[in-house]
Amino acid sequence: MNVVVTGGAGFIGSHTVDALIARGDRVVVLDDFRTGKRANLAQHAGTDRLTIVECDVSHGIFAALAGLSIDRIVHLAAQVSVVSSVANPLVDMSVNYGGTLHVLEYAKAMGVKKVVFASSAAVYGDVPPALIPVHEDAPRAPLSPYGIDKYASELALDYYAAVHGVPTTWFRFFNVYGERQDPSSPYSGVISIFADRARRGAPLTIFGDGSQTRDFVYVGDVVRAVLAGLADGNSRVVANVGTGAEITVRGLAELIVSLCGGTSEIAHAAARSGEIAKSCAAVDRLRDAFGVVAQMPLADGLRRTLAI
Ligand code: UD2
Question: Which atom number of ligand 1 is nearest to the Cα of residue 176?
Fold first, then answer.
């Protein structure tokens, strides 16, 4: 396959590129390097199967990809912070929803055979406890511009498939973690922040009482889902990508501290506003439609992330 990976220099994107190149595909990374890093792709230096194009997905992708032969697209490029989307909804809308429309217009014009899109558990909003683990057909009730943009993008993918014949598949990622997740922003994934601090023996801060739960899925399992989505078939199909298991943030903090030798203190700070209480994916559709079951046990994935 000849695959464009938008956001291919980012955390999930660079792992996707690794897997595509390992199976023999040709890959074009389209990334504006605002948060993506060339270092995430340094392992492919010298390969003729990787082309890197610097471009904002919401501006000029037709020109950026001109002359390249493209079969399929994995669309991961996004503004990824829910909190930033609340502060700057217009930027979020333009990059996240606008970016998806640019990708779909390109796919339509070029006859691309599959677009796989990274949506998010954010489309569900705060799910009532009775609906956990949350199934794909549960109500979509996003609570942030980020969630609205992801849901709007899903609708656009469905529309381009139904009306313009562009095959599309999209996944709702739960809390993805693993190597190369950048801990440097306050809104980085909690595992990247806790791992970074616990490695140094620095204190971990839990927002709220730590009873909130999340479904943490290892990036390698997410990449297997993305690759399954790139295959023919399953157009207009959405699946959650999670493990089906939840852990409290307190339990997570204690596990990471113990894996690191137990020196970090665990402190508490005020809960984040708009905090979701419980999050856990129903994973039967991922298994039944795509043949993918998340395999990495949390403790093993944490050891890899911590490089211990
Ligand atoms: C995740 C996604 C987000 C969106 C959302 C959908 C990440 C990084 N973010 O947001 O993009 O899809 O799910 O619901 O995957 N926490 C602490 N201490 C810290 C940092 C975080 O206690 O230093 C808590 C935080 O309050 C939350 C949990 O850890 O309860 C997870 O936080 P997060 O920022 O990793 O992800 P989340 O679930 O808010």
Answer: 15
